[in-house]
Design goal:
This protein is mostly beta strands. The protein is 14% helix and 41% strand. The strands form 4 sheets. Strands 3, 4, 7, 8, 9 and 10 form a 6-stranded antiparallel sheet that branches. Strands 13, 14, 17, 18, 19 and 20 form a 6-stranded antiparallel sheet that branches. It has a 4-stranded antiparallel sheet with strand order 1-2-6-5, with helices on one face. Strand 19 and strand 20 form a beta hairpin. The protein is globular.
């Protein structure tokens, strides 16, 4: 009997600790964020989702949707220890007669890290819950709660990175059929030396071996100068130009 009481007490404390963590995060880490999405690629994906359902997984995004009848929906992730609640956004559509209707609430997670599994919980109108639209759930005995799960072993976000032997694998993602050139401090900013190859529609790649050092670069399409949209490390040069940065070591 004493053992059973101890186990119940431990479970109660674990549940209480988890709920306090969630409540604390809700109080002072409630995300009032303005999320900036790709206005073309993501907008197309969002409008292809006809109704709320299970998470939609692509190479670049995981899109979570919810019933637009809810007054508020937020999402908290395991990799943030459930301490930040990210609010969903309402997507509306306009028909030929100009009538506006709500299609779904959504939150888009941009896959900046190579995470193959994500666990999460939702806040729907003030109540914590597993995602009712996602059949993938995991029960945690320690806290007596269900967590929703997203598994995406077939998708790993491709991005510019340093491979073995100091080879930088440059990647640019954009419209198909373009001529994408590369220039940086390694080429004295001459944009006519290196050209990326389109390996599949909208994906351009180039391998370039470079010695140890810090490199600044941009892509060029015609006369347009573009930072690397797969590399979040962007800095400003002394003359005020915005450039991408990568370190080889």
């Amino acid at each position: 009997m004493p053992i059973k009481v101890s186990m119940k007490k431990n479970k109660f404390l674990l549940v209480l600790s988890f709920l306090l963590t969630l409540c604390t995060g809700f109080n002072y880490l409630f995300a009032e964020e303005e999320v900036k999405y790709n206005p073309y690629e993501l907008d197309k994906l969002l409008h292809e989702i006809e109704k709320p359902g299970a998470p939609v997984i692509t190479e670049d995004y995981i899109i979570f949707t919810a019933d637009p009848k809810s007054r508020y929906v937020g999402i908290a992730f395991d990799f943030e220890n459930y301490q930040i609640v990210h609010p969903y956004t309402l997507l509306t559509v306009t028909d030929e007669d100009g009538n506006v209707s709500a299609r779904h609430l959504f939150y888009c997670y941009e896959r900046k890290h190579k995470i193959k599994e994500i666990r999460y919980r939702l806040v729907i109108d003030g109540l914590w819950t597993a995602d009712p639209l996602n059949p993938e759930k995991v029960y945690d005995d320690n806290v007596n709660l269900y967590f929703s799960k997203v598994s995406a072993p077939g998708y790993v976000k491709r991005a510019t990175e340093v491979n073995e032997n100091n080879v930088i694998h440059f990647i640019y993602k954009g419209e198909s059929g373009q001529e994408v050139r590369l220039a940086g401090n390694f080429s004295n900013w001459d944009s006519w030396i290196y050209e990326l190859r389109e390996t599949e529609p909208g994906i351009y790649e180039l391998d370039l071996p470079l010695p140890d050092g810090t490199y600044y670069y941009n892509y060029y399409i015609g006369l347009r100068t573009l930072t690397d949209n797969t590399n979040p490390d962007v800095v400003f040069t002394k003359d005020g130009r915005e450039v991408s940065k990568i370190v080889v070591h």
